[in-house]
C-alpha cells in the first residue's frame, strides 16, 4: 500500500495505459465488425443489382412482345368484330340489310326503323379494339409482375 501511495503517478499512468489498451481493443473489434458489415452490404448490393438487371430484362422482353402483338391483335379484333357481334346476337338488333332471326320471345328484326348507334360497324370495331387493348395491357401487367386479375 505504501508503494501505491508513494508512486501514485505511476499507478495512475498504469491505470490509464490499461484503460487505453482496453478501449483500443474494443475499438478494433468494432472496426472489424464494421468491415464484415460492409462486406455483407456489398454482397447484398451486388445481388440486388443482378436481380434488378433480371427484372429489367424481363420487363423489356415482355414490353417488346406486347408491342409486337398490338398491331396484330387489334387488326384481328377489328376485322372480326362485326361478324362476331352479329353471330352472338339472336336477332339482328341493328335492322338493315343483314338478315336476323327471331328470338324466343317472338321479336323480329325491325327493318326500316332507325338503327341503334351501338350497332354501327365503326362502334363495334372500336369496342373490339378497346377490349383487345385492355387485354394486351393486362398481359403486359402480368408479364412484369403487377397484381392484375
How does this structure look, described?
With 149 residues, the chain is mainly α. The chain has one domain (2-98, 109-143). The protein contains 3 helices and no strands. It has helices at 2-6, 8-88, 121-143. Helix 2 packs antiparallel against helix 3. The longest helix is centred in the N-terminal third of the chain and has 81 residues, at 8-88. The chain starts with a helix and ends in a 6-residue tail after the last helix.
Q: Which regions contain 5 or more consecutive residues with pLDDT less than 50?
A: 98-110
Number of strands: 0
Distance between termini? 85 Å
Give the % helix: over 70%
Radius of gyration, whole Å: 39 Å
Looking at how many chains there are and whether they match, the oligomeric state comes to single chain
Question: How is the main sheet built?
Answer: none
- Give the helix tally: 3
- Helix/strand structural class: mainly alpha
What is the number of domains? 1
SSE arrangement, N to C: HHH
Amino acid at each position: 500500500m505504501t508503494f501505491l501511495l508513494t508512486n501514485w503517478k505511476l499507478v495512475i499512468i498504469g491505470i490509464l495505459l490499461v484503460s487505453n489498451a482496453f478501449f483500443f481493443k474494443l475499438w478494433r473489434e468494432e472496426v472489424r465488425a464494421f468491415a464484415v458489415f460492409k462486406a455483407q452490404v456489398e454482397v447484398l448490393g451486388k445481388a440486388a443489382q443482378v436481380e434488378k438487371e433480371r427484372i429489367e430484362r424481363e420487363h423489356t422482353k415482355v414490353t417488346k412482345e406486347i408491342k409486337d402483338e398490338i398491331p396484330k391483335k387489334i387488326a384481328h379484333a377489328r376485322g372480326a368484330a362485326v361478324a362476331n357481334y352479329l353471330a352472338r346476337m339472336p336477332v339482328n338488333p341493328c335492322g338493315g340489310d343483314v338478315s336476323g332471326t327471331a328470338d324466343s320471345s317472338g321479336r323480329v328484326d325491325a327493318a326500316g326503323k332507325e338503327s341503334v348507334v351501338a350497332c354501327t360497324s365503326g362502334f363495334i370495331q372500336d369496342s373490339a379494339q378497346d377490349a383487345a387493348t385492355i387485354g394486351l395491357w393486362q398481359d403486359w401487367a402480368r408479364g412484369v409482375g403487377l397484381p392484375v386479375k
